[in-house]
Amino acid sequence: MRYVTRGTCSTAINVEVENGIIQSVEFVGGCHGNTQGVAALVKGMDVEEAISRLEGIDCRGRGTSCPDQLAKALRQTL
After folding, report:
1. Structural domains of the chain, with CATH
2. If exposure means fewest CB atoms within 10 Å of the residue's CB, which of 17, 48, 57, 73 is most exposed?
3. pTM
4. What DSSP character marks residue 29?
């Protein structure tokens, strides 16, 4: 699934989920090292667990962040 982000440096997130488990995450744009780190940390994680950990994280007062946008993308897979 491709999720178009809002309010972040990354422009999209490609997410693959199978049976409620995150198989892969790829951010398009954004802070490459940080987004790679987030993607590696959530790989193999239960979707609902990842959402609970990432949802609401703010980046510089924007009201969202790349991790928060990933939570929104994952919510669409439920």
Report:
1. 2-75 (3.30.390)
2. 48
3. 0.96
4. E
How large is the C-alpha radius of gyration of the chain? Answer: 11
CA distances from 63 to 16, 44, 56, 69 (A): 25, 27, 8, 10
Q: Are 67 and 10 in contact (CB under 8 A)?
A: no
Question: For residue range 49-58, what is the model confidence (pLDDT) as tens digits?
Answer: 999 999 999 9
Q: How many Cα atoms sit within 13 Å of 57 on the Cβ side?
A: 16
Q: Which residue has the tokens 């959402």?
A: 51
Query: Quick one: which H or E segment has residue 73?
Result: helix 66-75
Q: How confident is the model at residue 37 (pLDDT cuts 50, 70, 90)?
A: very high
- For tokens 């510089």, name the residue: 60
Q: Which amino acid is at 3?
A: Y
Distance, in Å, from the CA atom of 63 to the CA atom of 45, rounded to the nearest integer, reads 25
